[in-house]
Write a structure and sequence with these properties.
single chain, alpha+beta, 185 residues
Length: 185
Amino acid sequence: MLDEMTAARRAGAVLPALLLAALAVVFVLAPAGQGLADSAKGIGSPAIELPAGVPPVRFGGPEPLEIATRSGVRSFDVELAIDEAQRARGLMYRRSLPAGRGMLFDFGTERDVAMWMQNTYVSLDMVFIRDDGRIVRVAERTTPLSTATVESGAPVRFVLELPAGSAKALGIAAGDRVAHRLIGR
């Protein structure tokens, strides 16, 4: 009986060991580096298919971001668009953007900012944010694939793009405060 129990324990230990070994192989073979390439899966989005000749861009994140609204704190996971290539690409070519996800654009210093929706297939809410984290303007339900500019209306350092309808549904408005490790530094 004791030999059977020992054999059963050993057999039971083999399966977890095999699972750990398989996971180790997956992590070793997975591409290194932080961030998400827009030629692969975006944040919760289906694979992004880029047109021929359009190079992939790697984004930072996802990272947590919070907005303190009049009705409570709203949390999001955001990709980061910090350099020129990332800001130029943004959410272009994405076919979906799940609720609770977004992209934070950092322009480095406060300035007047104009965004557009060229090659962007999903409608977005654009949240324009000062360096101190205060929201100055929300442009709701932008028009997909439009080359019309969406202006900040005042100097801002950041723009947060969220799925269309998020601002209204969550009560996000001018005057609210945004918290993220890059904001207010």
